[in-house]
Amino acid sequence: MLATEKSVNEHLQARGISRRDFLKFCSTVAVALSLPINYASSIAETLGKRKKPAVIWLEFQGCTGCTESLTRADHPSIAQVVLDSISLDYHETLMAAAGKQAETALESSMKENLGNYILVVEGSTPTGNEGVYCTIGGKPAVDILKTLSKGAAFIVAVGTCACYGGLAAAKPNPTLAKGVDQLVKGKTIINIPGCPPIGDVIMATIVHYLLFKGAPSLDSEGRPLFAYGRTVHEVCPRSTQFEEGEMVAEFGDESHRTGACLWSQGCKGLVTHSACPVMRWNMGTSWCVASGHPCVGCSERDFWDKLTPIYTTTV
Predict the structure, then answer these.
(1) Catalytic residue among 26, 134, 163, 276
(2) 237 and 207 in one domain?
(3) For the segment 104-123, what is each residue's pLDDT rounded down to a tens digit?
């Protein structure tokens, strides 16, 4: 499972991915990153020549929904193939190894790629009682995080739990769960919140780092501006109905079926920053409001405490 000498492009060719399809993916990434379309060729060149970057993916106090969001699809997309072409040296959910073999893979990747591996963290990190609420191989998650973060090129906190503590950190927070940026200092940390986050945002963020040797522009919460720079309301297809005062009176009634605004039913889109209406989930199929459900604000810090009850207008 450790990094090979083949480039990403060589791995794609081995899988039967055409140059044309690869360029389409690069164009999609360029659009997602709000870059001029002519950057697609630069992305293709960077990924085409780049050796498989080593990725260590830690799963702590979470539901694994972020991994599901990234990998689950009926027909794997080009983005998923590129993800698979990354040297995913350690991922408890996806790797075949277990026990000592898994620990050996982790230690080997960390040593062989010291200073160059991408560290992805999913799930919150409990710190109460010296971190005993989440242990892996007999080691507290908080200790594992601090050890691995030292040798990482950069860190990606995937999902609201990893970014802010999420559900586990909601009051009364019995395990004293925390987000990565509360525990790790002096490292580039990119927060990609959401419960779960959009898989394409994760991919685009990693591609940006490989292309520009640095993180994309971030907001005050450490989130990429290309995906979190606007509120859900600003790009919501029902925002016109909001301005005209056309609100859903009750779930399932005519106003609900015809696309009236869901603010009256507790929608938090006015204060939630995310690209959900634009990028969507499941190969761009849908998102919460498109399915008739109000936005719950899952990409915001402490949304479980600040933006609940879900079906009550709080903003």
Answers:
(1) 276
(2) no
(3) 989 999 999 999 999 999 99
Asked if 115 and 254 sit in the same domain, the reply is no
What is the DSSP track for 288-313?
TGGGT-----TTSTTHHHHS-STTS-
Our answer to whether residue 163 is catalytic in this structure is no
pLDDT at 208 over 90: no
CA atoms within 13 A on the CB side of 241: 16
Catalytically annotated residue among 66, 134, 163, 208 = 66
Residue 315 placed within a domain: no
From the list 91, 163, 267, 273, the catalytic residue is 267
> Catalytic: 195?
yes
26 carries an active-site annotation = no
Q: Are 227 and 255 in contact (CB under 8 A)?
A: no
Confidence band, pLDDT 50/70/90 cuts, at residue 74? very low
Model pLDDT, residue 75: 44
Give the pLDDT of residue 2.
Answer: 45
Total structural domains in the chain? 2
Shared-domain flag, residues 236 and 217? no
Q: How does pLDDT run across 235-287, given as a tens digit for each residue?
A: 999 999 999 999 999 999 999 999 999 999 999 999 999 999 998 887 778 89
**Would you call 267 a catalytic residue per the annotation?**
yes
Q: What is the pTM of this model?
A: 0.84
236 is catalytic: yes
Same structural domain for residues 45 and 132? yes
- Is residue 134 part of the annotated active site? The answer reads no
Q: Is the pLDDT of residue 135 over 60?
A: yes
- Which entry of 26, 134, 163, 298 is annotated as an active-site residue? 298
Q: Which of 26, 134, 163, 236 is catalytic?
A: 236
At 148, list the tokens. 């691995």
Number of neighbouring beta carbons within 10 Å of residue 27: 18
CATH number of the domain at 118, please. 3.40.50.700
pLDDT at 202: 84
* Amino acid found at 98: A
Residues 185 and 241 in one domain: no
Does residue 130 lie within any of the structural domains?
yes
Q: Out of 26, 134, 161, 163, pick the active-site residue.
A: 161
* 13: containing domain: 8-226
Mean pLDDT calculated for residue range 48-76: 77
Instruction: Give the strand pairing for 152-158 and 189-192.
Output: parallel
